[in-house]
């Protein structure tokens, strides 16, 4: 989006990482303005509201929103405490809702400025659009991911409701559900390095996806080509969810790894057993 002409604001918990990422994104286009606002806790509405107000003050408004808050780790139900489960729900579901709520007035305002009748492109471009980042885990159910499956199902439901309620105001709400994307922290948390090759073979397209392919999906949903796309879930996973089933595809053979009652190892992050 920045490469194509947008200015942007990104929010995160870690100040140093968020500001560093903003500087990196700004290199996509000469003269781009990208704000990095750290110390933002998506679980607290006031924290997000303050970040949004700063964004509007410095950039002039909000036309597009990506709600991408997420927390994940591999663990069976026998090893996930109630607090750990709640933590993921708070980050993913409450964080996504807070993002929508904090940006909603600005999205409605933007939608009013960028109307389209579907016949001719708006002279002012597009606006008033939100994308929620979800997953495909809950489509089939997946071992070691009960917490995230529940959270992402909630995120999908928020987007669906937003599409229905806000569509009459000109706002569109859609979901992007990425599959395994190479070079991301998500995959470092979900797959052991020694199992990456075998994991990729189980994907119908025969490989992991790239960050660019998720970016392309984002550009599509924010573009004039998606004026009449609302309340949809765009899966970008090379067909991976069709083969996921009970086996998480991360080197853990079902059901053996569950019956051993061992703590998940070999991946980034994780939770110790707490029945």
Please give a structural write-up.
- The chain is an alpha/beta fold and 275 residues long.
- 41% of the residues lie in helices and 10% in strands.
- The chain contains nine helices and six strands; from the N terminus they run βαβαβαβααβαααβα.
- The chain has helices at 15-26, 45-59, 82-113, 137-140, 146-166, 185-190, 196-201, 211-222, 256-259, and strands at 8-11, 34-37, 64-67, 129-133, 172-178, 233-236.
- β1, α1 (15-26) and β2 form a beta-alpha-beta unit.
- α2 (45-59) packs parallel to α3 (82-113).
- The model has no long low-confidence stretch (mean pLDDT 91).
Summarize it.
The chain is α/β, with parallel strands linked by helices and 275 residues long. The chain has helices spanning 15-26, 45-59, 82-113, 137-140, 146-166, 185-190, 196-201, 211-222, 256-259; strands spanning 8-11, 34-37, 64-67, 129-133, 172-178, 233-236.
Throw out a few tags for this protein.
four-stranded parallel beta sheet, 275 residues, alpha/beta
Number of helices: 9
Principal-axes shape call = globular
Quote the average pLDDT.
91
Largest sheet: 4 strands, parallel
Give a count of the beta strands, DSSP E runs of length 2 or more: 6
The radius of gyration is 19 Å
Give the DSSP E fraction (strand runs of 2 or more residues): 5-15%
Strand order of the largest sheet: 3-4-5-6
Order of helices and strands: EHEHEHEHHEHHHEH
**Class by alpha and beta content:** alpha/beta
User: Spans of 5+ residues with little confidence (pLDDT < 50)?
Assistant: none
Distance between the termini: 44 Å
- In which range does the helix fraction lie? 40-55%
